From TrEMBL:
This is Glutamate-1-semialdehyde 2,1-aminomutase. Keywords: Isomerase, Pyridoxal phosphate. It comes from the Archaea. Its cofactor is pyridoxal 5'-phosphate. It comes from Saccharolobus caldissimus. CDD domains: OAT_like. InterPro entries: Aminotrans_3, PyrdxlP-dep_Trfase, PyrdxlP-dep_Trfase_major, PyrdxlP-dep_Trfase_small. The lineage of its organism: Archaea, Thermoproteota, Thermoprotei, Sulfolobales, Sulfolobaceae. One of its GO terms (molecular function) is transaminase activity.
Length: 436
């Protein structure tokens, strides 16, 4: 019998050759660790609407959507036009670009914040948020949650995806112990645990940072009571609440803060807000943001608020990611999520579905986990077989077992139907092979 690895290798020969070449000039042949998987990754050539094509000419319906960046879909014609016109007026002006003011106002209205500062990536913006919080509170410690990811700077790279369940596990070699000594780790959705930690350290804590809907261990929303408890403790002990909305900010019209009806002190936006171009934001209450400035808190970046990203973002937030269009994507997401639930019922397999806004994911487990400790107990072997099989049939379901799908405003009902047809076939086979 021919194995899924054989099928994958036959379909992706040119990717394999490119991978062999790439390995000699880039570690693991990729520009980000998250783009590598076994036996080797595919190399993409272009994308349009809901589709991408690889070097072998295979077409895929893409549900990874640039790890959540492409809420507007690939190469939206109106974004292409906007960027083409922007290029003619320079890609970078050096001094402040007039339209950054317009974009700042749009973001203030939509996300209920008073002031914003722009940068290019989520990593930069979370790094800035921490510095701002420390300067504002004049305290050092930061609380983060296990399983939450805030980018690839050192300070929060602890207990992101530990395979060992110990209390403190740095996520990478090369991070000095001292750099992490002010980072405390708490369990997601565990109010009692959080309160215990705060009772000991609360007066030294500058901020708690979280993904309000955790999207780096699949998709695990916060319980509202848990969140409210965290806000109350933050007020009582005088530390800030930071929502890392790098993912959530583009998956619900006004992000998770709008969804939960809460106003954190700082929020971070990135990924989807500029229609596929690099732009990130740290934003929040006026008194907190006011610590930034020359001879005050450092905040800089050559490419911050570059004209291409700013123009694309204004267009994205006002014309494309409208309430109506977001609702359209949400409705398709409900169809996909319900479709997976029906398949699980029909095949009688342990598969659970979690959805929020325009994203969702599946777990090969009876129930959606509540936190990282439950998540890490799930056997991920079936997921990899599912993933390679989905790829072999022209569907990129999501990027990894700890990721989620993104439904863009350019996906169609036919895309969802095709995704579910393939999933039904793949999961039926998996049930036989893995006794799910
Ligand atoms: C919640 C969250 N925060 C921050 C980041 C880092 O963003 P970037 O990759 O743009 O640096 C990511 C990236 O996936 C993320 O998911």
């Amino acid at each position: 019998m021919i194995s899924i690895n054989d099928i994958y290798e036959r379909k992706t020969r040119l990717s394999y050759y490119l991978y062999r070449e790439a390995r000699s000039v880039m570690p693991y042949g990729v520009s980000s660790n998250y783009r590598y998987w076994e036996p080797y990754p595919i190399y993409l050539v272009k994308g349009k609407g809901s589709r991408v094509w690889d070097v072998d000419g295979n077409e895929y319906i893409d549900f990874n959507m640039g790890f959540g960046v492409l809420e507007v879909g690939h190469s939206h014609p109106r974004i292409v036009e906007e960027v083409r016109r922007a290029v003619e007026d320079s890609t970078i002006l050096g001094f402040e670009y007039e339209k950054s003011v317009e974009l700042a106002k749009i973001i203030c209205n939509r996300y209920n914040v008073d002031m914003v500062r722009f940068s290019s990536t989520g990593t930069e913006a979370t790094m800035h948020a921490i510095r701002i919080a420390r300067a504002y509170t004049k305290r050092k410690k930061i609380i983060k949650f296990e399983g939450h990811y805030h980018g690839s700077h050192d300070q929060l790279l602890i207990n992101v995806n530990p395979m060992r369940l110990e209390s403190r596990v740095p996520t990478s070699p090369g991070i000095p112990e001292e750099t992490l000594s002010n980072t405390l780790v708490a369990d997601w959705n565990d109010y009692e645990g959080f309160e215990r930690l705060v009772r000991v350290h609360g007066n030294d804590v500058a901020a708690v940072i979280m993904e309000p809907v955790a999207m780096n261990m699949g998709l695990i929303p916060a319980d509202l009571d848990f969140l409210k408890g965290v806000f109350d403790l933050a007020r009582d002990y005088g530390f800030l609440v930071i929502f890392d909305e790098v993912k959530t900010g583009g998956k619900f019209y006004s992000g998770a803060s709008g969804y939960y009806g809460l106003k954190p002190d700082l929020i971070i936006l990135a990924k989807a807000i500029a229609g596929g171009l690099p732009l990130s934001v740290v934003a929040g209450r006026r008194k907190v943001m006011s610590v930034i400035g020359p001879e005050k808190v450092a905040h800089g970046g050559t490419f911050n608020a570059n004209p291409l990203s700013v123009k694309a973002s204004i267009f994205t937030l006002t014309e494309l990611l409208t309430q109506n269009n977001m609702y359209y994507a949400y409705r398709l997401n409900s169809l996909l999520s319900k479709g997976y639930e029906d398949i699980a019922d029909d095949l009688d397999i342990d598969l659970s579905v979690s959805m929020w806004g325009t994203s969702g994911t599946i777990y090969f487990a009876e129930k959606v986990p509540k936190n990282y400790k439950e998540f890490v107990r799930i056997d991920q072997k079936p997921w990899y077989v599912y993933f390679l099989n989905m790829l072999a049939h022209g569907i990129i379901p999501m990027a990894d077992y700890d990721e989620q799908w993104t439904i863009s405003i350019q996906h169609t009902e036919e895309d969802i139907t095709r995704h579910l047809e393939v999933a039904q076939m793949v999961l039926k086979k998996l049930k036989e092979d893995y006794k799910l």
